[in-house]
């Protein structure tokens, strides 16, 4: 029997602002994403130097997941939290940077540190490493945020006991334009968002 | 040699995005990997690129890297002895 699932928390990152469960928790004057993400990292006193080595897409996914997962993850036990993310531009922002770095045949020094981010699902790896997750993870590419698909996919993972919690959402980054919307879903009853679904929260 | 060591520290901080580390934080004999600066395998590949790009040194035997990249001191000594630019 299919059990009902509930949105537990959600976060939106766009336009130099982070909104958690409807409340603005970080907002700065307009700046580029590199500066915004660094300021957010400092503001939330995150201690994870590897953050600075990540590409923009991974930083975006990392910041969103950090604020949603940190209260949930326990170091003492295995955390069965599946990650299901999607976007439109895949890792194109980094792909372009990498391509530019190898376009001059007389100055051909490909950077391994840039190359490793030329796949969108690397951001799932970064989140998994950070929270020691060994759970299901999938990254989809869609023209637009397909909330119905992600909602169904998350429900299947939860109802087949593949995951206790699903972190799902949209992490789009290209040419310094970005939007992240992430939410945690589980079977634990939470009436806070009973009149909402991923789509309505995403469009708030 | 002293100038080369400072140059290497600067390059490592910039290239490897060691955001919270300054030149003063890196002692010449500090291990670059493990308990020292905590660099990882991708960083090791970037160090190989630095040798090639900035000093004209191509590492033919990757095993050599373990000795060369032990510290700033060992890197500077190797570069001084083998640089072509």
UniProtKB/TrEMBL annotation, chain A:
<protein>
    <submittedName>
        <fullName>3-oxoacyl-ACP synthase</fullName>
    </submittedName>
</protein>
Automatic annotation (TrEMBL), chain B:
<dbReference type="InterPro" id="IPR009081">
    <property type="entry name" value="PP-bd_ACP"/>
</dbReference>
<protein>
    <submittedName>
        <fullName>Acyl carrier protein</fullName>
    </submittedName>
</protein>
<dbReference type="Pfam" id="PF00550">
    <property type="entry name" value="PP-binding"/>
</dbReference>
<feature type="domain" description="Carrier">
    <location>
        <begin position="1"/>
        <end position="83"/>
    </location>
</feature>
<dbReference type="InterPro" id="IPR036736">
    <property type="entry name" value="ACP-like_sf"/>
</dbReference>
């Amino acid at each position: 029997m299919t059990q009902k699932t509930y949105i537990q928390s959600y976060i939106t990152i766009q336009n130099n602002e982070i909104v958690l469960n409807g409340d603005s928790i970080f907002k700065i004057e307009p700046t580029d994403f590199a500066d915004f993400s660094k300021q957010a990292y400092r503001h939330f006193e995150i201690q994870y130097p590897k953050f600075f080595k990540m590409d923009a897409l991974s930083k975006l996914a990392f910041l969103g997941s950090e604020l949603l997962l940190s209260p949930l993850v326990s170091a003492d036990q295995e955390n069965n939290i599946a990650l299901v993310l999607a976007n439109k531009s895949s890792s194109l922002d980094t792909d372009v940077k990498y391509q530019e770095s190898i376009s001059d045949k007389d100055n051909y020094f490909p950077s391994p540190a840039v190359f490793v981010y030329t796949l969108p699902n690397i951001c799932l790896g970064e989140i998994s490493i950070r929270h020691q997750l060994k759970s299901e993870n999938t990254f989809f590419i869609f023209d637009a945020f397909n909330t119905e698909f992600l909602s169904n996919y998350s429900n299947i993972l939860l109802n087949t006991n593949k995951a206790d919690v699903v972190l799902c959402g949209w992490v789009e980054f290209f040419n310094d334009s970005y939007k992240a919307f992430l939410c945690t879903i589980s079977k634990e009853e939470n009436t806070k968002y009973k009149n909402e679904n991923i789509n309505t929260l995403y469009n708030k | 040699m002293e100038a080369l060591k400072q140059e290497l520290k600067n390059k490592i901080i910039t290239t490897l995005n060691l955001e919270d580390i300054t030149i003063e934080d890196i002692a010449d004999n500090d291990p670059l990997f493990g308990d020292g600066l905590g660099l990882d395998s991708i960083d090791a590949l970037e160090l190989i690129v630095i040798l090639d790009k900035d000093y004209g040194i191509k590492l033919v035997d990757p095993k050599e890297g373990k000795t060369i990249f032990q510290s700033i001191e060992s890197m500077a000594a190797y570069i001084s002895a083998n640089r072509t630019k």
